[in-house]
Automatic annotation (TrEMBL):
Lineage: Eukaryota, Viridiplantae, Streptophyta, Embryophyta, Tracheophyta
Family: Belongs to the short-chain dehydrogenases/reductases (SDR) family.
Domain of life from the UniProt record: Eukaryota
Name listed for the protein in its UniProt record: Uncharacterized protein
GO cellular component annotations of the record: cytoplasm
Pfam family, one: adh_short
UniProt xrefs under InterPro entries: Fungal_SecMetab_SDRs, NAD(P)-bd_dom_sf, SDR_fam
Length: 252
């Protein structure tokens, strides 16, 4: 299941998961599946294997409904990818370059979408996360992979700024780490990891690409290929860890 799949990295995850194997099913969720033209195009190509579900991370009732639908249709999941996130919205949310630009509304919105939403998705999908929850996987455990960002690392923060986005991703990291401890304590065969995709050529990064160093702006195809390699090779000992796209662990 890919949560936040209508565009960008989430959409590319759906495409590559479908194309890498001719077995298994992929569930793609977004706020408005009927308006997700790229997902609908994929649905035409993979009619039997792609299921589109409505899910808005800011509305827990839609998360519960999606979990019910997955349980009734498939019984279980072996991979959950949280790909949704916000960085900027014109006239609503912009990365803060100074403390004087920090607003309560921006802090709350970033936290709701980037931290609370993915954790509620994990909460409701937890009973469905099983080993071998579909065909085409060799993993000995289910995997939960949430997209975070290096700027969420407190230890790596040498530039400051971007208060809302940084803090929301730091919160996601802490919440996911805490969940991973609970899963391990209860001996659930689930590996929770956090992934930094790098700076990827998507709508999210487009307004901020001018200052990206040469060779550091990745295509969606390269990014997802790299992240899927980390997911496919995730071991039990990786539970609760934070990885960059190149497999290097990121400090908290």
């Amino acid at each position: 299941m890919v949560q936040g799949a209508s565009r960008g990295i989430g959409l590319e995850f759906v495409r590559q998961l479908l194309e890498k194997s001719d077995k298994g099913h992929v569930i793609a969720t977004c706020r408005n599946p009927d308006g997700a033209t790229s997902l609908l195009d994929l649905k035409k190509k993979f009619m039997e294997r792609l299921n589109l579900l409505q899910l808005d991370v800011t509305k827990e009732s839609t998360i519960e409904a999606a979990a019910t639908s997955v349980r009734e249709s498939y019984g279980s999941l072996n991979l959950l990818i949280n790909a949704s996130g916000i960085l900027s919205i014109p006239d609503v949310l912009q990365p803060e370059t100074t403390l004087t630009k920090v607003e309560k509304s921006s802090l709350l919105l970033a936290y709701e979408v980037n931290a609370i939403g993915p954790v509620l998705v994990i909460k409701h999908m937890w009973p469905l996360l099983k080993v071998g929850g579909g065909s085409g996987t060799e993993r000995k455990h289910a995997v939960v992979a949430s997209l975070s960002a290096r700027v969420g690392s407190i230890g790596d923060n040498g530039l400051g700024g971007w208060h809302s986005y940084r803090a929301s991703k730091t919160a996601l990291n802490q919440l996911t780490k805490t969940i991973s401890v609970e899963f391990a304590r209860k001996k659930d065969p689930i590996v929770c990891i956090l992934l930094h995709p790098g700076t990827v050529d998507t709508d999210l990064s487009q307004p901020f690409q001018r200052n990206v160093p040469k060779g550091k702006l990745f295509t969606k195809e390269f990014c997802v290929q790299s992240l899927l390699s980390i997911i496919d090779n995730a071991k039990s000992s990786d539970n609760g860890k934070f990885f960059a796209w190149d497999g290097q662990e990121i400090p908290w």
